[in-house]
Every structure is written in C-alpha cells, then in structure tokens.
Design a protein that fits this description.
Length: 305
C-alpha cells in the first residue's frame, strides 16, 4: 500500500488463482457462511455474512462481476494491507486490473462493481474497519508489472503475463506499447495443474492434491516418488511447448526481440523452459498490484490531488 497525502492507495490483482496485493498472496477461493464457522480466524464479517478467503482457487470466469466473490476479495485485500499498516479506517483509492483484451469492454462495469459502496464497514480478525472509497482505476494487466522497465525496452520487446487463467501478450517498440499487438489467451497455469492431476489419476489411480502440484511447479519442497515426478515433468514439458507456441503465434523471435515473462507462470517458465536468450523473468507475483499502485500515485501527483 502506498500513501499520497491522506489517501491510501491499495493495488489489488484479482487473479483467477490467487488474490495479490503489494504484500500478500492468498488463493482466491471464497466461501460464504450464514453462521460463524468453528474456525473463525481470518474471516471477513460483512452484511451479516461470514466470509472466508483462501483454501482453494476461484473457478475461471471471464466476467469478474458475475458474483460477489471479487467484491469480498477486495475487502479482504484492503483489510490485509490496512492491518499491515496498523490502520482501521481511512480513505482508499483502489488500483485494480483486467486482462489486456477485456479492459475496454469490462472497465466500466468492474469499476462500478468494485465501488458499489462508497463507504463500507466490516470486521476482520476481531477489528472493525471503516473504509471510504474515493476512487478506482482499472489498468491492463502485464503492462503495469513492467512499468519500471519500459525505459530499457529499446527496439522490439514482447511482454507476456502468465496467470492461473490466462496469458496476456503485448509488444513494445522503442518503449511504446503497440496497441494492436495486445492479446489474451486462455492458457493459464491452472489448466495444467488440472492436467497433471488427471494424468496422475490415469497412471496410478490415485489423486494428487493441488497444493502438491503447485508447490512442485514453483520449486517448494514436496514429498513425491520418482514415478510421480516423471508424470508431472511430462505434463510440464507439454505445457511449456504449448506456451511457447502461443508466443510464436504472435511472432516471438528471440533473435529479434527481448522477452519479459511475468505472473505466476514466470516461475514455472524460469524453472522448466529452455528460454534464456534475451529473456527477463519477473517472478514477483505481486508485480501487477505494485504497478497499479505506482500508476495511481503518479496520476494523483500529476492531477494535483
């Protein structure tokens, strides 16, 4: 969270797999209870409901306003950032994003959805929060994750943001985005987590928990036998090939351009792909949320707010 005068700028990346702010990452699954559950730590209490965040990932849905989940995730993100800053009330300017090809068509609806209540009160972890939403801006994913690197993008560059649900692609020529190059493909890491689970079930007639697959993909320690690992590696190789084929579909050429890979998939690509020439991997999964915040701060400065 950034500050500008008395305004708290909160960047939130509503990913299909994980909710990200500048400082936290949590699975984007939402569960709503009418009665307080036995284990109540980490619950949002709002509008007479008990809302638990995390535990699983949100199912892919191209319309982020179809249900209340992303609104609840927004409150959760604000609460977590306020808690880290030792605040319980204040003015908030929200900075959020959408996949590249959906920004133009969904920006207005998403803005209205996020700011449905200018003043909102809720409880989180035993503390009462009073929030005044003073504004919101919706930015394109990918671009904001590399905003601080645009000055080094002489010549042609390709930016690829690999999330849980989508891959966003854009090209840059001499630090200027080529709008006509922006593309969104539904080929996120989440699909291949499911493919690995299915492959394991088909091979061994045993299920494998999603957390084991995810931790293996990002390099965390897991307990698996060599036979299971071989199945996972085969699926990962298939995924890497398919991702690279998408890059090439949009004229990626390592001899003629730089490649910037961001998002959760950047960790997977860095670990398992053979792409090394002229490639920059930005493995901070909070990069978009941080970029959103800096974009808002610059906007407020330029407009004398």
């Amino acid at each position: 969270m950034l500050k500008h005068n008395d305004i708290n700028i909160v960047g939130i990346d509503h990913g299909f797999g994980n909710l990200k702010t500048a400082n936290i990452v949590v699975p984007s699954g939402v569960k709503v209870y009418d009665l307080e559950p036995p284990l109540s730590s980490g619950l949002i209490t709002y509008d007479g409901k008990y809302i638990a965040v995390g535990g699983n990932h949100k199912a892919f849905n191209a319309d982020k306003t179809e249900d209340d989940d992303n609104y609840y995730l927004t409150l959760y993100g604000i609460a977590r950032e306020f808690a880290l800053a030792g605040l319980t009330e204040g003015d908030v300017y929200l900075a959020v994003g959408l996949p590249l090809m959906w920004v133009s068509s969904q920006r207005d609806n998403f803005s209205k959805y996020i700011t449905r209540n200018e003043n909102v009160e809720f409880d989180f972890n035993g503390r009462h929060y009073k929030i005044h939403i003073v504004g919101v801006k919706v930015y394109p994913q990918s671009y904001c994750a590399v905003y601080d690197k645009l000055r080094e993008m002489d010549g042609f560059s390709m930016i690829t943001d690999i999330g849980n649900g989508t891959i966003n692609i854009m090209k840059v020529n001499d630090r200027k985005v080529i709008n006509e190059s922006c593309r969104t493909e539904r080929l996120g890491v989440g699909r291949y987590v499911t493919d690995i689970q299915n492959a394991v079930m088909n091979k061994f007639q045993n299920s494998i928990d999603e957390s084991i697959v995810t931790n293996y993909l990002i390099g965390k320690s897991v307990t698996i036998t060599k036979e299971y690992e071989e199945v996972m590696l085969h699926c990962i190789d298939e995924y890497i090939r398919e991702v690279i084929s998408v890059f090439r579909k949009y004229d990626y050429n390592p001899d003629l351009m730089k490649l910037y890979v961001v998002g959760g998939g950047a960790v997977v690509m860095k670990r398992f792909s053979q792409l090394t020439d002229n490639v920059t991997y930005i493995t901070d999964v909070c990069a978009n949320a941080k970029g959103y915040e800096y974009m808002i701060k610059n906007f407020l400065r330029k407009n004398g707010v």
